[in-house]
Specification:
Length: 143
C-alpha cells in the first residue's frame, strides 16, 4: 500500500482526534537500562494502527476534550489506569465503600466455598470401608 493513498484516509478519519498511548508498563528494565522489547513495540504499534480505546493503555480524545483539560497533553489525564484496589489514577475510595465491597466479595467467596464443599461431598463415597477409616488409622497407627 502506498503512503500517498493511505494518508488522505487517515487524515479524514483521525482529524480532530488525538490518540494517547500510556506505554509506561511496556518498558523492560534490565541492568539499569530501560528498553522496548519486540512485544512491547508490537503492542504500541497495534494500538496506533487500531486508533481506538484500549482499557488501561490507549484512548482517543477529541480537541474539545483536550480543551476541557486546559489543553494539557498529560497522558494520565486521558488514559485511566485501574490499580489493584480498584482506584483509578490514584483516586481514593472511602473506608465505608471499601468495607462494603469487602463484605460483598466475602459473601460471594463463602457461597462459592459452600458449593465447592457440596461438590467434594458428592465425590466422597461413605459406603467404602476406607473413607471413614483412613484418617483414624493414620493418626492412631492402627489398621
Amino acid at each position: 500500500m502506498q503512503l500517498e493513498k493511505v494518508a488522505p484516509v487517515l487524515k479524514c478519519t483521525r482529524q480532530g482526534r488525538i490518540l494517547f498511548i500510556d506505554a509506561v508498563n511496556e518498558v523492560a528494565r534490565e541492568r539499569a537500562q530501560s528498553f522496548l522489547k519486540p512485544e512491547h513495540q508490537a503492542r504500541i504499534l497495534e494500538a496506533y494502527h487500531n486508533f481506538g480505546a484500549e482499557p488501561d493503555f490507549a484512548i482517543v480524545a477529541t480537541v474539545d476534550e483536550i480543551a476541557a483539560q486546559s489543553h494539557s497533553l498529560s497522558i494520565p489525564l486521558y488514559v485511566k489506569r485501574v490499580t489493584a484496589n480498584g482506584a483509578v489514577n490514584g483516586e481514593t475510595r472511602s473506608l465505608p465503600e471499601l468495607w462494603a465491597e469487602w463484605e460483598r466479595e466475602g459473601r460471594v467467596f463463602w457461597q462459592e466455598m459452600d458449593v465447592l464443599m457440596e461438590m467434594l461431598d458428592t465425590l466422597t463415597d461413605t459406603t467404602t470401608p476406607h473413607s471413614k477409616n483412613v484418617i483414624p488409622s493414620v493418626v492412631t497407627g492402627t489398621q
